[in-house]
Amino acid sequence: MKSICFLFIIFLISCSPVKIKDFNNDYTQELVGQIKSMDMRQYEYKFIKKDTVNLVQTITLNFDSNNRIKNEKIITENGQKVAIYQYLNGLLIEKQLLSTHDSTLVTYKYDQLKNLIEEKATYNNGMFNLKSQVFDKYHNVVQIRTNFVKKIKQLTEIEYNYKNNYFIAKSSIDTIAVGTIETKNHFNKKGYIIKAKGIMNL
After folding, report:
1. Integer Cα distance of 191 and 18 in angstroms
2. In whole angstroms, what is the distance from residue 98 CA to residue 74 CA?
3. Which helix (H) or strand (E) holds 197?
4. Cβ-contact 95, 83 below 8 angstroms
5. How far is 141 from 187, CA to CA, in rounded Å?
6. For the segment 14-72, what is each residue's pLDDT rounded down to a tens digit?
7. Which end of the chain has fewer CB atoms surrounding its CB within 10 Å, N or C?
8. Residues 75 and 88: beta-carbon distance below 8 Å
9. pTM (2 d.p.)
10. How many CB atoms lie within 10 A of CB 95?
């Protein structure tokens, strides 16, 4: 009887809606073992001439004892930028970006279920960008509001079809004119997006 109950619980878990990983940059492979630092080199290519390197970034990540990034250094031919991370109860609450010419402070707020509900970037000139998010009971984003320096506003609303493994995201951008973008995204059983199709209306 116990084995039947156990199998039934496993069945319910396997059939429950998944957490979509695209919104949280969860494509990064989990670190195994104790990592102190990591060096990477990132190449960016021009959109038209794909064989022409547009920018090369050398990135150094330093980790704390819990394998969380504590600081990051990005070096390009134009200079370097340093990011310093702060955590509270395992959650990222602040990121400070420092470069030769400017600085940015990014703060993060969470709800009681540890969903990221607000991200605010404040620049050294006093201007700021603000992004707020609303989640469903499965911890997936259903609404994103973004305010870029009080001039550009964007609203994204997302509807999920968990039975058929896809969601539709509708975004409206208010600048000089209002434009809308609609995308249909299919995801697999692990929550990774495997196919996307978009339509833009201006």
Report:
1. 6
2. 10
3. strand 193-201
4. yes
5. 14
6. 456 788 876 555 545 667 788 899 999 988 876 666 667 678 899 999 999 989 999 99
7. N
8. no
9. 0.79
10. 19
Residue that has been written with the tokens 């001439």 in this structure: 49
Amino acid in position 138: Y
Does residue 152 carry a pLDDT above 90?
Answer: no
Give whole-number Cα distances, 179 to 59, 142, 200, in Å: 35, 20, 8
Residue with tokens 């695209």: 22
Sign of CA dihedral 120, 22, 83, 71: positive
Q: 126: pLDDT confidence band, cut at 50, 70 and 90? A: confident
With residue 10 as reference, give the H or E element that holds it.
helix 2-15
What the block records as the tokens of 86 is 């702060």
Neighbours of 108 (CB within 10 A): 18
- N-terminal to C-terminal alpha carbon distance within the chain: 60
